[in-house]
Amino acid sequence: MAVRNMKKTLKWKKFELLFHVSTTPSKPQPQSSHSHHLILSSSSFSSVPNLTNTYLKSKPQSSPTLTSEEISKINLLLPRLCLFNHLPTAIQLTTTALTLPNPPPDPKSLSLSILIHSLTLQPDLKLPMSLLTRLSRKHPPHPYLTPISTMLIASYLKKDRPKDALKVYKWMLRPGSPCTCMVDKSAYGILVGGLCARGLVLEGLMVLRDMLRVRLLPGEGLRRKVVRSLLREARVREAKALDGLLPCAGDLNKVLDFLDHHIGNWSN
């Protein structure tokens, strides 16, 4: 118990130090690899080892949590970090706040949207995957992992990067992923509709099949999007058949057999 309390205290103190360093005024930096290391430089955190003994001797905090004032300060700081392209620091600040023993109860209480927007402007998925990986290390899976993954998918689709959205989805379903059983109806619906709307109809049907396999039925709006996308591909017979099968919740196996057959033929 004493060791556990010390770990909690160290984590809380680390957050306090990170928050203090992050709020130190800094000048805007160009978007380069050098700027990514500006705030996270070794000099910024060189005091951490020297403070370890002090933290171990301090009285453990049983349930460290963020106050509303601290959450407000983080929400003011995150846009600034993103604007100055200090995304690694923004990721570290966010994940440290979210992985405290008592994190903010609502993901909407943090300015995650500006962070997600900035991450999906990057040319690759290195930083978005860094965010997800940090959250996935928590056991059991962090409750914000699925909402944040869904936000990344939606943001990539909005920026007309459907293949990157699909990569995030595949990361969620990879073997051993903590998200495997956590992909919700919202994530499926956003991805199926987004892929079909952007001409990746085959990929959209594959995700729709995954959705049906976990017994999640598409709503009326999503069903119409899928059918229209098939019609745009001049697959009239398949569109009519699927339009007739999807409302039937009683026999999902028939719908899955239909999708398996036509996905196989399409792929060939």
UniProtKB/TrEMBL annotation:
The keyword Repeat applies. PROSITE patterns: PPR. InterPro entries: PPR_rpt (IPR002885), TPR-like_helical_dom_sf (IPR011990). PPR repeats lie at residues 184-218. The keyword Repeat applies. One of its GO terms (molecular function) is mRNA binding. Keywords: Repeat. Belongs to the PPR family. P subfamily. This is Pentatricopeptide repeat-containing protein. It comes from Gossypium raimondii.
